[in-house]
Amino acid sequence: MTAINALIVGINSEYAAELRNLLSRHPECEYHLTVAASFDGAIQSMAQHSPDVVLVGSSVDMKGYRHFIQSVQQQSCVQPVIILETSTDNPAEFDYLENGADFYLKRWRHETGMLHKAVMAGIERVKAFQAIRNSERRMRGIYYWSSIGILLVDLNGLIVQNNPAFSRIVGFSDDELCDMPLARDLVHPDDQEEVSRSFESVKTEQQPVAKLQCRMRTKEGDHTWTELTWSLFSETGSPAQFCVCLVEDITSKKNMESELRASEAQLKQLSAHLLDLIEQERRHIARELHDSIGSYLGAIKLGLGQLSYAPPTGKEQLSERLDQLSQMLVETMDELQRITTSLYPPVLDDLGIAAALRWHCGRVNSSVPAVSLTFQADIDESRIQPGLAIVMYRVSQEAIHNALQHSKSTTVAVSLSEEENTIVLRIVDKGVGLPGEMPGCNETVCGMGIRNMMKRVELSGGVFSISSAKDKGTAVSASWPVFRPSESPDPA
Asked: Is the pTM of this model over 0.85?
């Protein structure tokens, strides 16, 4: 059963009793009637308990009724108002209807069900009105609070209305944008033709929706990338007079695309460089094997051949020849160890990164005595993530090589430490510095060696940085988060 609360104003006790009798005949609804002695009392009652319908007797003073309706409207009340004819001497039916009444019932006492039908129709009308108002409120909220710019453009291309988001995109106020030609004054000159063409295709209904990307001028004179979506806007039953344009700021997306393309190009270049390095290393190893190991083995083969074709006549001479061949074998083994160690130092796996870097620095000091290369380590190697040792070693190799080749520095310091739960590798020289005021990793300033180091560090989850000042040296830094075994993936 539906409960309906009705507020009665300007109806005497006799009519009120008759109202109760009429409304009690509808078993599907239960009416609760509240009688107000005056319009002021009715306003107070509505403030406390919002009724579903207001029933007003036609014998009330029209001036008081108008004041009552104004007060109700100021409180945003939307209850239906039904005027019940209680005096035939008051021919003010249209005055009531023009001043907010929903219905004026003359024969409500005699025609069965008329009053109940009017009440239900009034309530349904109010519900429909409330739904429309809520929908308008939501649409208004979408319009004003949307992060996407919304424009209403007339068929001449002039901006008629815009939401705050569009003002934020271009930096112009609503007054400055009003009647501004969108394509001519806001779109980049190189994109104006395409924007105008898409606008015409929608305006002439060649296509229902048009979407394109263009650069739009801001008040500061810059240009920001936007995506426009055009569509016609028309009220029901009337020809289209406007176009709706949705404007989305895609500058960050464009920047990301540009960075991605640059990164892809850089990766291709780096991959080509790595392949070239591999081929160079193969040629180097081949030369090493041919020039050193090959020559040693050739000499040993020649010596063994001489023993076969012209064996020594005495025991002492045989022993001397065998000693010579044995020494050549030892030298071959030493040379082979030197080559394999230069490719991958066994000390890295046997004793760790600190020992490997100390060994490498000692070897460089022996081969380049003019440069003082120092190494310092203060670290627990169990806190280094698995697989990082070889990355640290290769980055150190490249940075030390660059310092020796280009810095003209007499001192190079290598350090490995833990700072604030971060493993930090530094290679610092005091040489001439990198070319350019602000060194960056690109082909005009930094060579492939630096870019190779950067990619190695970044692909291993670290952060690479390089700083340099003219005649003050260069500092290469790479850092990684410390390893916590509890955070490592479960091998199962």
From this structure: no
